[in-house]
Amino acid sequence: MAKSQRANSGKAANKATGLKEKQPAAQLSEFTAAHFYKRLTAQSRSAEKLQVERYFKSGGEQSEEADIFIGVGMGQVFALAKEFIGMPLTEIEKLLESPVHEARVGAVSVMDFQARDKKTSHAQKKELFDLYIRRHDRINNWGLVDRAAPYVVGGYLSDKPRAILYKLARSKNVWERRTAIVSTYYFIRKGDIDDTFKIAEILVNDEHDLVQKATGGWIREAGKKDVRKLLKFLDNYAATMPRTTLRYAIEHLTPKEKKYYMELKSQSKK
Fold first, then answer.
1. In the listed set 138, 159, 180, which residue is the last one of a domain according to the structure?
2. Are residue 202 and residue 139 in the same domain, yes or no?
3. 56 Cβ partners below 8 Å, 6+ apart?
4. Which of 140, 134, 147, 144 is nearest to 89 (CA)?
5. What whole-number distance in Å separates Cα of residue 1 and Cα of residue 188?
6. Which of 80, 95, 93 minimizes the C-alpha distance to 39?
7. Angle between helices 227-237 and 209-225 (to 10 degrees)
8. Cβ neighbour number for residue 68 with a 10 Å cutoff
9. What whole-number distance in Å separates Cα of residue 204 and Cα of residue 246?
10. Angle 209-225/174-182 helices, nearest 10 degrees?
11. pTM over 0.90
12. How many CA atoms lie within 13 A of 126 on its CB side?
């Protein structure tokens, strides 16, 4: 094959996989879970392992099971995932099945980068969404949810019915409930905040602090688009919602407003 033909062939392969010309690092044949994991473990550091374990409280209430940490910083994982943006779904799922936390962060990060990429087709975005929902058993802590839910789930549903989010909000699984509210971040960015408040109504008395924080934080962000809706929500629920949810929700209100809603909460306990 002539040199020019080989060059054109390489460009065609890049175009087919949605890769940019300047994206080097791994060749197409190396976009595998095994190769990703090899690159990942090469960056492992014991000091980083201790720091990440403390951050995620390994084996505690923030994960469904005790994660294994190998000591790779999140920034390094994200950078590696960006190199592997061409990873096929079958390989992403293999990474999701890993007991190693950083490998699963890599998997959801690849999913996020693909979902954000303008070259990703609608069909591919549906496949990413389906994988996220189908393998939610492996997306089992707040970091994994927050890394992928906004674009993989929210982005896909932006122009579609959103009944799945209401189903997730009523789930017994804490991470599915967190996905329900976190996914609405994509809608909020577009000025579409109705679903955020409606899902928050379902989650407003959730007993898990990581759902409480997400619920309060997301209605706070929705309130930046329409503070009247936030205040109306607080008028209805401030007295009864968990204190954690309330504190996150009122974070950007005026001192006077904060005091008013905190007093509503305090008076409800008398």
1. 159
2. no
3. 62, 63, 67, 69, 101, 141, 143
4. 134
5. 52
6. 80
7. 140
8. 14
9. 9
10. 10
11. no
12. 5
Taking only the tens place, the pLDDT of each residue in 169-222 is 999 999 999 999 999 999 999 999 999 999 999 999 999 999 999 999 999 999
Only one residue has tokens 């019915």, namely 161
Question: In the numeric block, which tokens belong to residue 126?
Answer: 């549906």
Q: How many domains does the chain have?
A: 2
3-state secondary structure of 59: coil
Beta bridge partners of 63: 141
Q: Say yes or no: 188 and 258 in one domain.
A: yes
Nearest to 218 by CA among 182, 261, 168, 175: 182
d(CA 82, CA 25): 10
Identify whether the C-beta of residue 104 lies closer than 8 Å to the C-beta of residue 98.
Answer: yes
| Residue (of 64, 227, 232) closest to 141 by Cα position | 64
The closest of 64, 211, 58 to 137, measured between CA atoms, is 64
The residues with which 141 forms a beta bridge, in sequence order, are 63
- What range does the domain containing 69 cover? 1-159
Bridge partners, residue 68, by sequence: 100
Most distant CA pair in the chain, distance: 84
The residue written with tokens 């959730």 in the block is 206
Q: Over the range 79-113, which residues count as b (16 or more CB within 10 Å of their CB) and which as e?
A: ebbebbbbbeeebbebbbebebbbbbbbbbbbbbb
Contact partners, residue 224, CB within 8 Å, separation at least 6: 252
**What digits encode the pLDDT tens for the residues 31-88?**
999 999 999 999 988 656 656 655 555 444 454 456 788 989 999 999 999 999 999 9
CATH value at residue 230: 1.25.10.90
**Statement to judge: residues 113 and 127 lie in one domain:** yes
Q: Which tokens in the block code for residue 58?
A: 């390994």
